[in-house]
């Protein structure tokens, strides 16, 4: 029998960006919050002088142990799902700070088009623009309504950037100026301007200068060491929950973090949650934590899985299209792009930062005419200098063997002579793309694993080919490349190679309980004291990294939780 603890105001499941923001905002207003994190404690000192590519980038030190819990994957319902036993397509973080510790720091705002995508697409092209099975829907909130929360996230994190000429209107400029512009980015900017496109510096959570945020948290500037993605930042220059929102919550004295606490069920009476049950993984003891409000702030898969295992909300049925939990799983179309190989020019690509880049949005969202195209939405196209660490970066021209003497010579030669222009494409939801519980495979506790059913569609292939051609045009305009390779082909989705940790959907938001699981405060329609915070709320994925939009929604959810607490209950409008 589980040990029962005293009741608290709020219990938060997962202490990453979402959990940290919720905790900081609620504790500042006097609520007592317990944060349950299944991984271990983390602090900046853990990363002092640890630029170890093998340990972190290739052996996944900061990631979930797949031998204890993983996901299963299949491309369609008629195929048996199998477990992901080694990391590939995406990386599942664990520990205090979650994926917010090992991210790159690219902090975009989704476009106004994204939040009203169904309405805006029909308005311009008609409903026939949607292919059969595409379950696109509006988000139940507009960009203008969400804009103040974007600003709050950016001010807290100290985002460095400049205004996107094709993005939504801003109420304030970024709190810190853009990062430095190395030669490759300058070449991209000059080339795209000649093409009458609209380049701007990528919005970055890697600080361009020392910064003190509105909560009084001071952080140092980025050193351009090139160890961002898959690494914690030893300087604290990369905004992450451990150096921003979590210390603010802890300072109030009203936030208790319990690490090594694996939440397994949401406890409820069929209408409202009463708390959660978790296992202390250090002792094996089951513990019940009662709470007035339960907030799920874990990763996409965990948010969805917890609801399904707890029989909370209506599971999605792809055969009927009914139900909402598990609906609209989406990923990212990130294969299209172009590579230029230079014979007589070198670039210091070993230096960089996770979000050091130059971007255009001329082919993103509905910023270009889709009338004669067989897809909707698009991609941000950019050049990035994230720091080419030597083990994982061996780009060589086509035709060079993949190993041996010739490969070694070519990889050394082209290590500083290669530039890439890439497209990060949106991913639209389809009726047969969803998340559910695997009937066969279980985790170390005997609970069913999360099962993904997903594949790329013709929509994705058309988008990838179109954007790859645009990348090729840009890198050609950049000049001096002796050889250009354009990757237009997008085959079936392969879970083996890394692509992006940009999984979305499963507990989506909207304006109706018939088609969504949560409202625009991320409050569950079916359990008013449960809020589900994260990219699980996205009804589709845009042509951007999801963190900026997830952060904005987290601040709005925090506001909603406070309203709910003070009003004594009820659905928020």
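^ structure tokens above, recovered residues below v
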């Amino acid at each position: 029998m589980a040990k029962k603890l005293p009741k608290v105001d709020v219990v938060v499941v997962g202490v990453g960006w979402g959990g940290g923001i919720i905790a900081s905002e609620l504790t500042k207003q006097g609520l007592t919050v317990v944060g349950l994190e299944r991984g271990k404690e983390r602090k900046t000192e853990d990363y002092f002088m640890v630029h170890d590519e093998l340990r972190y980038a290739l052996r996944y030190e900061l990631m979930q142990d797949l031998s204890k819990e993983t996901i299963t994957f299949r491309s369609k319902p008629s195929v048996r799902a199998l477990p992901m036993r080694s990391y590939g397509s995406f990386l599942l973080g664990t520990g205090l700070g979650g994926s917010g510790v090992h991210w790159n720091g690219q902090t975009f705002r989704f476009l106004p088009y994204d939040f009203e995508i169904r309405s805006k697409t029909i308005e311009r092209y008609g409903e026939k623009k949607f292919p059969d099975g595409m379950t696109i829907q509006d988000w139940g909130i507009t960009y203008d309504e969400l804009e103040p929360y974007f600003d709050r996230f950016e001010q807290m994190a100290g985002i460095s950037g400049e205004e996107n000429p094709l993005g939504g209107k801003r109420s304030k400029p970024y709190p810190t100026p853009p990062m430095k512009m190395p030669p490759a980015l300058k070449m991209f900017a000059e080339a795209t301007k000649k093409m009458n496109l609209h380049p701007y510096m990528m919005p970055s959570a890697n600080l361009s200068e020392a910064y003190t945020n509105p909560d009084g948290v001071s952080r140092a500037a980025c050193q351009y060491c090139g160890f961002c993605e898959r690494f914690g930042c030893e300087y604290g220059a990369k905004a992450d929950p451990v150096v921003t929102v979590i210390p603010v919550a802890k300072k109030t004295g009203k936030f208790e973090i319990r690490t090594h606490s694996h939440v397994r069920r949401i406890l409820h009476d069929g209408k409202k949650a009463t708390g959660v049950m978790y296992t202390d993984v250090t002792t094996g003891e089951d513990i019940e934590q009662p709470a007035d409000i339960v907030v799920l702030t874990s990763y996409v898969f965990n948010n969805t899985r917890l609801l399904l295992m707890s029989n909370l909300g209506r599971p999605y049925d792809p055969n009927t299209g009914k139900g909402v939990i598990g609906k609209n799983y989406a990923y990212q179309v990130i294969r299209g792009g172009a590579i230029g190989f230079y014979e007589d020019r070198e670039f210091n690509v070993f230096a960089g930062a996770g979000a050091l880049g130059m971007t255009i949005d001329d082919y993103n969202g509905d910023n270009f005419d889709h009338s004669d195209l067989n897809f909707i939405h698009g991609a941000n196209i950019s050049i990035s200098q994230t720091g080419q660490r030597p083990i994982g970066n061996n780009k060589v021209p086509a035709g060079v063997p993949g190993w041996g003497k010739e490969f070694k010579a070519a990889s050394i030669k082209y290590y500083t002579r290669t530039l890439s222009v890439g497209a990060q494409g949106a991913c639209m939801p389809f009726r047969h793309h969803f998340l559910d519980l695997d009937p066969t495979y279980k985790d170390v506790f005997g609970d069913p694993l999360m099962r993904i059913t997903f594949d790329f569609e013709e929509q994705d292939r058309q988008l990838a080919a179109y954007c790859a051609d645009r990348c090729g045009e840009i890198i050609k305009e950049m000049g001096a490349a002796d050889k250009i390779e354009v990757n237009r082909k997008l085959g079936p989705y392969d879970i083996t190679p890394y692509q992006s940790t940009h999984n979305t959907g499963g507990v989506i938001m909207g304006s109706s309980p018939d088609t969504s699981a949560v409202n625009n405060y991320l409050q569950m329609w079916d359990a008013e004291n449960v809020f589900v915070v994260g990219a699980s709320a996205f009804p589709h994925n845009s042509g951007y990294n999801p963190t900026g939009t997830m952060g904005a929604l987290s601040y709005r959810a925090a506001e909603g939780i406070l309203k709910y607490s003070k009003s004594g209950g009820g659905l928020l409008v």
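The longest helix spans residues 547-567.
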